[in-house]
Hints:
CATH superfamily of the largest domain: Schlafen, AAA domain
Shape: elongated
Mean pLDDT: 85
CATH topology of the largest domain: Methyltransferase, Cobalt-precorrin-4 Transmethylase, Domain 2
Oligomer: single chain
Largest sheet: 4 strands, antiparallel
Low-confidence stretches: 160-164
Helix content: 25-40%
Order of helices and strands: EHHHHEEEEHEEHHEEEHEHEEEEEEH
CATH architecture of the largest domain: 2-Layer Sandwich
Strand content: 25-35%
Radius of gyration: 28 Å
Amino acid sequence: MTQREFIVRKTPFVFLKRVAYITFFFAVLPLVAVLWIDLRTEYAASPLATAVPSFSLFILLILGLLQFLIVVISFATWYFPTYLVNRDVVMYRPGLISPDRRLVETPQITGVDTRQGALARRFDYGSLVLSAAGDSVTIKDIHSPDKVAQTLLSLAASDSAPSMLQRLPARELIAQGENNQAEFKASLLWDYRREAVNKDLYEPVMKNIAAFMNTAGGALLIGVSDDGQVLGIERDYAGLPKKNVDGWENAFNMAFNQMIGAEMHHNVELEFEEIDGAVVCVALVQPSQIPCYLNFKGKEEFYIRTGNSSQPLSVSKATRYIQTRFTV
């Protein structure tokens, strides 16, 4: 089931890194202090020499107090700041006395990208870049960023079906370009590089449809190149026994039933529009209530939409996503 609201905290590694920096700082601080200041002379001339009779004890007390304060501050600046995510807004809460700050309206989010280095992948933390309304917002150093991204996308989609994006005419979809809910494919089975029919091209078409169903839905435009050039679906007719829109739709349905399943077909509606003399197919995909898998050449995979691309999830990540995204 999609969560309606959740809190995101920074990874504990943020605190551990700060502790490591503090440890290094206090390892070199005494040396720097000796080089820059004659502390013993300053100590002997101050009233502190009476209160603390030992210079070594004085240094230990000062360093201990400073280290304690810095550790407390580091812990507080790690523990208290959080991100509140709900169906309306993503909000940063610094904690303590600082005011909350709205980062982005949840329904406006069109993509979520995960940023992780090698160490971050090993310990499952990283940052998220949220794309919305031509701008981007970064949520840094959070635990399980993939899971948070999946939950956030599901939350953003929870009240958007059917998507307003899907209702737009093909020309407007093309003008907006590819995004989290729009994808362009040049053809269903015509290979423009080889100038020949290639039925392996069914796979990228069906992959994107499956990803849309598993995420927030979307519109797949077939007969449009990645850069928005209208090509039309007429070249596909070369590989069809019935060389018209009906024959093309039959081929699409057969591929869909074999690779995704006829039981999922109610989530997809095909519309055909003519643009500058070329026929473009707009596949309107609604988010599914159950997980959708792609079967191709004996291999079953689970895809979701992230940003303007469709990505497969590993078994473990797919399991977590399904538990979050779908009502069992």
